[in-house]
């Protein structure tokens, strides 16, 4: 009877031993990442190809120890994530490090809270401007470099500030984080980026019909008001472009609202058609504008008197610039300039004229009006920018946020354009007549401008990552439809020299890890404890003989046969 119970008891003992061994393996697996310090949202540096050449951050996954700028000279950083607050960033060091192609496990740039200040004194304003200049320079460097490691941006908060303080303390003590010494490990478990296949662009067109008298067979002339709505920046998930070109979009919507009120009454409907265009592909040589214009039939194209393109009108003080491709002596250009100048003088503003001749053989398109000029349509761009921007610059970078936009500037810009258009439409050129006077039913609505500016300042709009059914695109279409007679949407594929990659944001897990020495000591202690515990349990339940029999060598098969 005792023999019949023995196999069962041995089985129970073996199962207990297997459980202990499994527990040991679990503890070993968990011993390194034993303390999660923080988890923060991070935003990856854009990855793209231009004419086949790679630019931006070429990797996304991260699993390395972290270090601050206080690392010892000559140290190998190939398996280290360098964490740099923007306040402490030395742009010369970063530029030299990238240009010399020094190895690095990854880079995390911390953006300061000052960038999100909604109000502040002169000190805050000064600090914001200082950060803006530094960030613009850093963004320009990163966007135009080929970086063979992950680069991310994150915003400062209490958790990551505490982690950074510990990292700095260890680095200053000469104990940088490694597998041997321990420290903090940054982990982003994400798949490697893939190419964005057939990125789409969506152009939204609104049409407000002018008054046509009975028996008039001639087509009414048309004035086009256009603004590009998408952005480009170092971090696509943060590229909201409040000024470039959120201010232009807001101004266009408000102008459409004002003229919809005028055109709703046959007595005040002008003898001009108004064409509103919200275009995509602006940062990429205004590729969307080009496709939109080429979709026009010849009759519509020839009916356009002129086009006004709105670009970055949200952070100017007292002067705007009219950029044109045709010579200033051109009769139509004179008419546009004089119309805006007369209204500007009444509003105590200044308007300057900048002429830049286009080269049709050059694919570079710096201003949206140049796409009109290439098709021999008179057009101009109204902007606070006096200098022609370089490719992929002034297109809604990291510093182009809500806090840098002046609502009053947009209100004045809307009043300037709307009054100038109205005087041209109704034949009131040179007359001091305010059609959109303050306190009237046709006054510019600051609350409307503010509400849409808030929406745009929370919506990243980098074209390759906006689908044709994106909620933001649908919201723009719906809003414009409320102000015009007819809305059409055009979907196109972004073509040309650019290729984009996904994986624009992620979750960074920060772990506080122990050193290898501590790991080995902990394993030794745990192992000894488990062996003693197991031996004690066997002795108390089965006896010493059963414990010894577990470690006794079993008899050989030959001996059993004999």
UniProtKB/TrEMBL annotation:
The chain crosses the membrane at residues 520-544. It is a single-pass membrane protein. It comes from the Eukaryota. Keywords: Endoplasmic reticulum, Glycoprotein, Membrane, Signal, Transmembrane, Transmembrane helix. It is found in: Endoplasmic reticulum membrane. InterPro entries: EF_Hand_1_Ca_BS, Nicalin. Its main location: endoplasmic reticulum. Belongs to the nicastrin family. PANTHER family: NICALIN. This is Nicalin. It comes from Gossypium hirsutum.
């Amino acid at each position: 009877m005792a023999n019949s119970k023995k196999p069962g008891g041995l089985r129970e003992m073996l199962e207990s031993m297997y459980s202990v061994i499994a527990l040991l393996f679990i503890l070993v697996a968990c011993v390194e990442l034993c303390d999660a310090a923080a988890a923060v949202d991070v935003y990856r540096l854009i990855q793209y190809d231009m004419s086949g050449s790679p630019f931006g951050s070429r990797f996304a996954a991260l699993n390395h120890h972290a270090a601050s700028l206080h690392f010892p000279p000559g140290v190998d950083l190939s398996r280290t994530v360098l964490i740099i607050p923007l306040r402490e960033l030395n742009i010369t060091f970063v530029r030299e490090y990238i240009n010399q192609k020094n190895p690095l496990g990854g880079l995390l740039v911390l953006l300061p809270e000052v960038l999100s200040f909604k109000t502040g004194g002169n000190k805050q304003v000064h600090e914001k401007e200082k950060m803006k200049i530094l960030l613009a320079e850093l963004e320009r460097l990163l966007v135009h470099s080929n970086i063979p490691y992950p680069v991310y941006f994150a915003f400062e908060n209490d958790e990551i500030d505490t982690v950074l303080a510990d990292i700095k303390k260890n680095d200053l003590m000469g104990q940088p984080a490694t597998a041997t010494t321990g420290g903090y490990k940054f982990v982003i478990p994400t798949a490697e980026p893939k190419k964005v296949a057939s990125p789409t662009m969506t152009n939204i067109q609104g049409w407000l019909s002018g008054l046509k008298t009975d028996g008039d067979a001639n087509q009414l002339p048309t004035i086009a008001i256009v603004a590009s709505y998408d952005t480009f920046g170092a971090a696509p998930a943060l590229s909201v472009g409040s000024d470039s070109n959120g201010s232009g979009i807001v101004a266009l919507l408000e102008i459409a609202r004002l003229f919809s009120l005028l055109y709703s009454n046959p007595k005040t409907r002008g003898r001009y058609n108004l064409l509103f265009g919200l275009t995509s592909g602006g940062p990429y040589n205004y590729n969307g504008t080009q496709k939109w214009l080429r979709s026009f039939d010849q009759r519509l194209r020839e009916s356009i008197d002129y086009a006004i393109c709105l670009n970055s009108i949200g952070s100017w003080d007292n002067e705007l610039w009219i950029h044109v491709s045709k010579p200033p002596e051109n009769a139509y250009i004179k008419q546009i300039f004089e119309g805006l100048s007369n209204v500007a003088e009444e509003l105590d503003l200044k308007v300057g004229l900048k002429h830049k001749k286009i080269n049709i053989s050059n694919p570079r398109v710096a201003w949206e009006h140049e796409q009109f000029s290439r098709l021999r349509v008179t057009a101009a761009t109204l902007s606070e920018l006096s200098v022609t921007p370089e490719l992929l610059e002034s297109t809604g970078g990291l510093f182009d946020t809500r806090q840098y936009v002046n609502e009053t500037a947009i209100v004045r810009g809307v009043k300037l354009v709307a009054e100038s258009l109205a005087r041209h439409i109704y034949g009131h050129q040179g007359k001091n007549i305010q059609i959109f006077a303050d306190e009237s039913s046709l006054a510019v609505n600051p609350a409307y401008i503010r509400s849409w500016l808030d929406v745009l300042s929370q919506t990243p709009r980098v074209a390759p990552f906006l689908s044709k059914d994106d909620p933001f695109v649908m919201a723009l279409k719906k809003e414009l439809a409320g102000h015009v007679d007819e809305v059409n949407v055009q979907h196109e594929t972004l073509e040309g020299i650019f290729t984009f990659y996904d994986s624009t944001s992620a979750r960074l897990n920060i772990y506080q890890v122990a050193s290898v020495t501590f790991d080995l000591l902990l394993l030794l202690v745990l192992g000894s404890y488990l062996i003693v515990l197991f031996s004690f349990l066997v002795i108390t339940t089965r006896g010493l003989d059963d414990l010894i029999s577990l470690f006794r060598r079993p008899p050989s098969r030959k001996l059993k046969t004999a």
